[in-house]
Design brief:
single chain; 2 domains; elongated
């Protein structure tokens, strides 16, 4: 049976190894490099020699260590599962009791388009998609508008008491009533102490928390009945921002207000501008235009393919066009679909590079025959 001196040597050498590994880590070595470091390997071998002298029931043996490690892992998993079940039930109860604000609307494309899926593209020449978005039709077909940046992010909305994530119920499906396409999933709510609850849950998306964290107190200060709509953007969520390490933020693009009966309405964009200023929330960049024209917006979209967002060095996704004043018309224009239009045109030219001759009508053919007959008759005379 090993004496107390062996026990003490094992404890002391194990502490030396831990300290050595910590020192090597501060020098920038990776875990695999540390484990294969000559000094570490030598000490570990000596530790194994000392442990071999311990009695089989000694808690310092490897067998005892791995048994404790396994039990601790099993206990931790059981506790995690219990916490997860409790949190899911708590979140479900909060979601069922939460007032549902106005869900962010479906926004149609500004330009006429053709194709589906990978062949979907804007169809030249530039023409407004009046059938879906309303621009280009009605008493004022070309109204004053705000042109706002379209951000590529996770669509969120929040009141002073609740934070929601918008959920697409359709996926790739595109038929049906567009007003039924989206739903809301509760992510967080204010508890009795006025703190946000749910953001630290086990299944909570920490990337969204990182994006919202600087603005949580501002969201909590919103007026009753007011709902703000924003995109949460993050280095590890959106492909467009992968090259920006540590990028996490939000961009506001809409507000709505609910009355005493719970019926909500989206506010004009000039009110959104003022509310974003009042609550110190970051707003998408925008530009006011006195008149909407398809040709001008088409040209702007072509230029946008080489343009960054105003507040982030990342490629612009496109624009959202919002009717100024009390009008509620809104539409989107994406760079991707304009580039797809150019690709379709190029493919068509490549497939048939020669321009087709215009087919002759019967009248044209008859006139040509008559002309030839007259020429022949003159030669005979």
């Amino acid at each position: 049976m090993a004496g107390a001196s062996t026990d003490a040597q094992v404890d002391a050498l194990a502490a030396e190894i831990r300290q050595l590994k910590a020192d090597l880590k501060t020098q920038g070595l990776k875990s695999s490099e540390i484990n294969h470091h000559q000094a570490v390997v030598a000490k570990v071998q000596e530790l194994q020699r000392l442990k071999s002298q311990l009695s089989s029931d000694d808690p310092r043996t490897d067998a005892a260590f791995f048994a404790r490690q396994k039990q601790e892992a099993e206990d931790a998993q059981k506790q995690k599962q219990a916490d997860l079940t409790h949190q899911r039930a708590e979140l479900k109860a909060a979601e069922q009791s939460a007032p549902q604000p106005l869900i962010q609307r479906k926004i149609f494309h500004l330009f006429r388009h053709a194709g589906t899926g990978p062949t979907f593209h804007y169809e030249p020449p530039p023409r407004l998609n009046s059938k879906d978005c309303g621009f280009g039709a009605g008493e004022e077909p070309n109204p004053p508008v705000y042109i706002t940046e379209k951000w590529d992010g996770t669509t969120m909305q929040a009141t002073a008491q609740h934070i929601f994530k918008r959920i697409d119920l359709w996926g790739k499906r595109r038929d049906g009533d567009p007003s039924q396409r989206y739903s809301l999933r509760l992510l967080a709510w204010k508890d009795g102490d006025g703190a946000w609850r749910g953001l630290d849950f086990l299944e909570a998306d920490q990337r969204l928390l990182e994006a919202m964290r600087p603005h949580l107190s501002k969201l909590a200060s919103l007026d009753e009945g007011l709902c703000v709509y924003f995109e949460a953007v993050h280095t590890d969520i959106n492909a467009n921002f992968k090259h920006l390490p540590g990028f996490a933020d939000i961009r506001v693009f809409d507000f709505s207000r609910s009355g005493s009966h719970g019926v909500g309405r989206f506010l004009p964009f000039d009110e959104t501008i003022e509310l974003a200023k009042r609550f110190d929330l970051p707003l998408v960049a925008y530009e006011y235009r006195k008149k909407l024209t398809a040709e001008e917006l088409w040209a702007d979209l072509e230029k946008a393919s080489k343009r960054h967002y105003a507040t982030a060095p990342a490629m612009l996704e496109g624009f959202v066009v919002r009717e100024a004043g009390a009008g509620g018309r809104i539409a989107k224009a994406r760079v991707e679909q304009l580039e797809a239009a150019a690709a379709v045109t190029a493919a068509a030219v490549q497939a048939d590079p020669k321009p087709k001759m215009r087919s002759k009508t019967k009248a044209e053919a008859k006139a040509r025959c008559w002309k030839k007959w007259c020429c022949c008759l003159l030669k005979l005379l």
